[in-house]
Amino acid sequence: MNLELGKESINKLLLKYSIPAIVGMIVVSMYNAIDRIFIGHIENIGAIALSGVGITLPIVTILLSFELLIGIGVSTNISASLGKGNKKHAEKYLGQLIIVAIFIGLSLVLGISIFKNNILIMFGASESSMYYAKEYIDVILIGTVFYIIGFSLITTIRSEGNPKKASKLLIISCIINIVLDPIFIFYWGIKGAAIATVLSQIFVFVMAIHYYTKGKSNLKLRRENLIPDIIFIKRIIINGLPIFFMQIFTSLIQVIFNNSVKIYGGDLAIGALATIVSISNIFLMPVIGINQGSLPIIGFNYGAKQYDRAKKALIYGTIVGFIILSLGFILVLLLPDKLISLFNKDKELMDISVQGIRIYLFMMPISVIAITAPNYFQSIGKVNTSIFLSLLRQAILLIPLLIILSKYFGIIGVWLAQPVADLLSSIISCVFLIKEFKNYNAMVEAIE
């Protein structure tokens, strides 16, 4: 693996590592999308039930943020350790993943369970949607620890050199969810959708643990590495903070969005937002997959002082991401009603969603730069820059824009905030990347 990352063509490496990661992230996005598709078509209550699930979206994003904190934090350190030829340290990080995931997972379940009602009200729940929100999230919380451990390990499976295995596990788990969803929803309604999701997550957990204990993995989970080590845990957290902050502020934005659309569009507008986010994630998750696939490539080559190869991995990945998001944008422009009807065919919900998706995703192709730049700086160890660029798009720009534009333009202003933030953050990210690349010539001269 080490020789491959340092010598193989960047294009071939991106294909090998990113395609499985793209498939994996699409599967991740499909987990919630599939639930919403089936829930939205429940007879008589589909539209309001979809809004109830939309209320829980910030909670699901919070769970995802901690999973990515651990998974990306561990994977970054594993890649760097393997790049330096230190397999012992790589396995130590793998063991610490389990410790951190259990602690964080149990803490999240306890905290959310205790303050659940207040949290859901703060996130935009009304008397009509509260019941469905609680029905869904109560079951999702049961699988939290399994989810965080299993999906964090999936990320490390890619970093240790087996991206195909990671994708295979995710695809099978998604199929399990698809098969079980309609069956369980028939018997238990919205709760059944959550049960199907949790069972598919437990499958990932069991198979990932088996892979690292009895499977053909390059790294192994060893008992001696399951003792907490503050130094290693701190490194995991530091390297996972950029993606963590990005997702946490995504959750915060979802809360603000939920409350804004509720004010200007009512409960159904929350369902519309959930639908729009689900559709956008189908296109955005492949870009996140490219980020995950390029992470070990960039990290290894930067660590080996092969700066040109690290830069190429970013540029090629950004180009592919731009193409993917452009295709998604074209579909949104031409077939918004077809995409939205997958989730629900209620006329009022459809009208709100069609208007929203065309505005909300208007700058989607350009946003690729704002997504890949923080990942690049994270991969090369410049965590502060990565965090700043992540916050720039998800908080520093978006929150003020959302508040100001919604005040003056109502629901249209709510939808408009995201594309404006995407454009501005992408321009600023370009400035940071250009400055970074200019430093490489001086670094190469110093080495020579």
Describe the model:
The protein has 18 helices and no strands. It is mostly helical and 448 residues long. It has one domain. It has helices spanning 2-7, 10-40, 46-83, 87-114, 116-122, 127-142, 144-159, 163-188, 190-213, 230-265, 267-303, 307-334, 336-341, 347-360, 368-379, 383-396, 398-409, 411-447. It is globular, with a radius of gyration of 21 Å.
What secondary-structure arrangement, pairings included, does this model have?
Layout: H1 2-7, H2 10-40, H3 46-83, H4 87-114, H5 116-122, H6 127-142, H7 144-159, H8 163-188, H9 190-213, H10 230-265, H11 267-303, H12 307-334, H13 336-341, H14 347-360, H15 368-379, H16 383-396, H17 398-409, H18 411-447
Please supply descriptive tags for the structure shown above.
single chain, mainly alpha, 448 residues
What is the radius of gyration computed over CA atoms, rounded to a whole number of angstroms?
21 Å
The total count of helices amounts to 18
Q: H/E element string?
A: HHHHHHHHHHHHHHHHHH
Number of domains: 1
Report the sheet with the most strands, covering strand number, pairing sense and barrel closure. none
N-end to C-end Cα span: 27 Å
Write down the overall geometry. globular
Low-confidence spans: none
Number of beta-strand segments: 0
Structural class: mainly alpha
Instruction: Look at the structure and give the mean pLDDT.
Output: 88
